[in-house]
Amino acid sequence: MAIRLRRFPHADLPLAAAAPPPSASTPSSQDELKRVAAHRAVELVQSGMVLGLGTGSTAAHAIDRVGDLLRCGALRGVVGVPTSEWAAARAATAGIPLTDLNAHPVVDLSIDGADEVDPALNLVKGRGGSLLREKMVEAASRRFVVIVDESKLVPRLGASRLAVPVEVIPFGWALTLRRLQNVFDAVPGFNLKLRAASTDAKASAFAEKGAEFEPFVTDNKNYIVDLFFEDGIHGDLSRISDDILRITGVVEHGMFLGLASSVIIARKDGATVVVNKET
Ligand SMILES: O=C[C@H](O)[C@H](O)[C@H](O)COP(=O)(O)O
Known about the structure:
The structure is a single chain. By secondary structure, this protein is α/β, with parallel strands linked by helices. Helices cover 27% and strands 22% of the residues. The longest helix has 15 residues, at 57-71. The protein starts with a strand and ends with a strand. The model is unreliable at 1-24 (pLDDT under 50). It folds into two domains: 3-151 and 258-276, Rossmann fold (3-Layer(aba) Sandwich); 164-251, Alpha-Beta Plaits. Helix 1 crosses helix 2 and helix 2 (57-71) runs parallel beside helix 3. The structure holds ribose-5-phosphate. Ribose-5-phosphate binds at residues 54-59, 112-115, 125-131, 134. Keywords: Isomerase. GO terms for molecular function: ribose-5-phosphate isomerase activity.
């Protein structure tokens, strides 16, 4: 497998002693690509680090790998700051001791997946609903390494046409939703909806008829409003971010602007590409 490193400041970090080399064969599935990216990122973990533990199917591989390396003694003294209840449970199963931002307000390294990555390394996160804790932990990190397979690369945020999540408090959520609609009123093809607890067809049908609807509830007991863009988000992302965050009732949104230090991309052709933030 070819590994190309571009401006990767910590490429010279020692690899964990017992880390076997990534598979030399071409990855056969999307999950295998996620595993390749995750294991490459875990090579950056050093003994004694405070480690931000991401959420999702890609981060799961990183958590499991750190657990394996702790178990075999290749890593020691690592403590994890989980970005969700799910990550806490996964880390506990993997045998990673846990801490939190109160005890460790500075995190050495965070490793997490993303839903979208744009060419400037801005991200969409939170399709699993964990954006608030993820952003808190990752913003508190000296280094935030994003791990993705190449399907997550987009020309601009929102361009996958999948959700750009916004966490809102349940109180007055319908008013908050209308205010979010106002921010994007002039955007053709814009749509938004309150996320359902279940995304299956039955739940959507209920929602459309205005019948009993069970909203998705985050770890922080909030709701999620998902924004959808036909052609991605055009314009100044930091201004759009400010416009969203200015709405009373909005807690946080899933655009992670300028937070990623590096993105590790596992490609179908077997290459692993590391792209670093321009400094
Ligand atoms: O809330 C979920 C998180 O932001 C995840 O990091 C993101 O959805 C990526 O998840 P996955 O690795 O499963 O695609």
